[in-house]
Write a structure and sequence with these properties.
single chain; alpha/beta; Rossmann fold; six-stranded mixed beta sheet; four-stranded antiparallel beta sheet; 10 helices; about 35% helix; globular; binds adenosine-5'-triphosphate
């Protein structure tokens, strides 16, 4: 597997406080990675940096085989280059059907003319059905998105992001507020999605992380404290001390 995202020596301070401190780690192509760490460890700030929302004071963030510097790109350009982000709260168009939400999200030419003369093709409808199957919403395609359960809305939003065909998908606490059955289905969706792209999941729920069954990066005070399997990192004394607040 080749490297898709390379973060090296990244630091960022807010009012003199180093939220990210010489952070370095890599994500490979088609990899599922969990990022954990106590409150304030820098998980959200890392995602803000990778998506161009926050600019670090130093370091490099390189993406893809051409090693594009994400630090020189706008948020829109980074999204176009293939970095998608799922925030904690779902933001689907509640008045639109599941089908239309997915259709609107499909990656396509967004010039004013193409939008004006857009006609739904059978090919697009097929893509929407394939996405719906991927997120377990095939039976819900005609429903208004506002009628979906919290878990179903989260899956729909994941489907809308997948419709953009990102190479790297960043997902913030996908299991929050979900039932056990919904969490299990979310695991399946993320594991499947990570077969064809990199998926980075920030999550507090350790049971959920265990089910992802992937490499884990533990952040603490803006740096990597430990990395490896969940069993490996949770038996690390530094990690134990940090989680127990010692
Ligand atoms: N815009 C900002 N201005 C000032 N301080 C900030 C800003 N963004 C983050 N911080 C601080 O940087 C540190 C890292 O925050 P961050 O949100 O990245 O942590 P986190 O690991 O995502 O935490 P949580 O698990 O609680 O979401 C925290 O101490 C936070 O208060």
């Amino acid at each position: 597997m080749s490297t898709l995202l390379e973060v090296s020596g990244v630091s960022v301070s807010f009012d003199g406080f180093k939220a990210i401190n010489n952070l370095s780690f890599q994500i490979a192509d088609a990899e599922l990675r969990a990022v954990i760490g106590p409150n304030g460890a820098g998980k959200t700030t890392f995602m803000d940096i990778a998506t161009g929302k926050t600019r670090p004071d130093e370091g490099r963030v390189l993406f893809g085989e051409k090693s594009l510097s994400l630090l020189r790109m706008s948020e829109a350009k980074i999204a176009q280059a293939g970095v998608g982000r799922k925030f904690q709260r779902p933001t689907v168009f509640e008045d639109q059907s599941v089908f239309d939400n997915l259709l609107l999200a499909l990656k396509k030419n967004r010039s004013p003319f193409s939008v004006l003369f857009y006609k739904k093709s059978e090919q697009d409808a097929e893509k929407v059905r394939a996405l719906a199957a991927q997120i377990g919403l095939s039976e819900q395609l005609e429903r208004h998105s506002g009628e979906l359960s919290h878990g179903q809305k989260q899956w729909l939003e994941i489907g809308m992001l997948l419709a953009q065909e990102p190479r790297l998908l960043l997902v913030d606490e996908p299991a929050a507020g979900m039932t056990l059955a919904e969490r299990e289905q979310t695991t399946d969706i993320l594991v499947e999605a990570a077969k064809t792209r990199a998926v980075v999941v920030v999550e507090h729920d350790m049971e959920f992380v265990r089910r992802l069954n992937c490499k884990v990066t533990v952040l603490h005070e803006g740096s990597v404290l430990a990395e490896g399997s969940l069993d490996h990192v949770t038996s690390n004394q530094d990690v134990i001390d940090v989680y127990l607040g010692r």
